[in-house]
Amino acid sequence: MTQEQDIRTAIDRHWAASAAGDQVAEHEIYHDDAVCAYPQSGEVIHGRHNLQALRSHHPGKPSGFAVRRIVGKGDLWITEYAIDYEGKSAFTVSIMEFKGDKVARETQYFADPFDAPAWRAQWVERAG
């Protein structure tokens, strides 16, 4: 297997564990000193231990999780996914930067859905 295939396998395991709520397996992908940034809130989480603790204590456990697409090459991988918290979806983008076979840095963006404005209906197709 190539390094890219190994990384893709690790990412698939990571998202499957995340969807299943397996906090241990979900965080195996990170270096001990990994950094995760949430630009929208201005938060930076230092270390795998802190990241796992933060996610383990989330008051609204995810009720749904769907990976839409994973693309990447070399040490940079991007996942688009939707995650449901308390009946509300958040469309999410995860940018993972690998150092060897583990994530050294991740940046996550979260976006709430919104109603499409009527004025542009003649030019768009509604996604299902």
How is the secondary structure organized here?
Layout: H1 3-20, H2 23-26, E1 30-38, E2 43-46, H3 48-56, E3 62-73, E4 76-85, E5 88-99, E6 102-111
Parallel strand pairs: 1-6
Antiparallel strand pairs: 1-2, 3-4, 4-5, 5-6
Plain-language structure description:
A 6-stranded mixed β-sheet has the order 2-1-6-5-4-3, covered by helices on one side. The chain is an alpha+beta fold. The protein has helices at 3-20, 23-26, 48-56; strands at 30-38, 43-46, 62-73, 76-85, 88-99, 102-111.
Task: Give a concise summary.
The chain has three helices and six strands; from the N terminus they run H-H-E-E-H-E-E-E-E. By secondary structure, it is an alpha+beta fold. It has a six-stranded mixed sheet, covered by helices on one side.
Q: How far apart, in Å, are the first and last alpha carbons?
A: 36 Å
- Note the run of SSEs as H and E: HHEEHEEEE
Overall outline: globular
Number of helices: 3
Largest sheet strand order: 2-1-6-5-4-3
User: Which structural category do the helix and sheet elements fall into?
Assistant: alpha+beta
